[in-house]
Amino acid sequence: MTDSPRAARRLAALMAGMGTAHLIAPKPFDALIPKQLPGSARTWTYASGVAELACAAAVALPRTRRTGALATAGLMAAVFPANIKMAHDWRGKPLPLRAAAYGRLPFQAPLIAWALHVSRKAR
Q: Using CA atoms, how far apart are residues 122 and 97, in angstroms rounded to an integer?
């Protein structure tokens, strides 16, 4: 794991990028929202984008870094079912798309560990 300030900056940048993507190009994310959730998929997509941006801002600021990194870990855990849904939905897609959908599943654990590392190292 990289040093704490660098790890925090990179985590904040990742979350800001994903949050921005959810807001400016929501359609691909809408398909990942489980139909069992109440309300529209677009509302959930926008809400998750705003949550990612809030986490990014909290991680970027040293004063709120610990709480922001814990919230980031929680958010990453909370969205894991959407990644599972994507892998399930894409099981009939061409091999490169299936590989991407299944390949991203094992990366959620290291992302959560990264956020927890940033939280532990925060002052």
A: 37
Tell if the pTM clears 0.85, that is, is over it: yes
Is the separation of the CB atoms in 60 and 12 below 8 Å? yes
For 48-103, give the DSSP string.
Answer: HHHHHHHHHHHHHSGGGHHHHHHHHHHHHHHTHHHHHHHHHHTTTS-HHHHHHHHH
CA angle 117, 102, 107 (to 5 degrees): 10
The Cα–Cα gap between 82 and 21 comes to: 16
Using CA atoms, how far apart are residues 38 and 59, in angstroms rounded to an integer? 29
pLDDT, tens digit only, all 123 positions of the chain: 556 789 999 999 999 999 999 999 999 899 888 888 899 999 999 999 999 999 999 999 999 999 999 999 999 999 898 889 889 998 998 998 889 889 889 999 999 999 999 999 997
Which tokens in the block code for residue 10? Answer: 């990179």
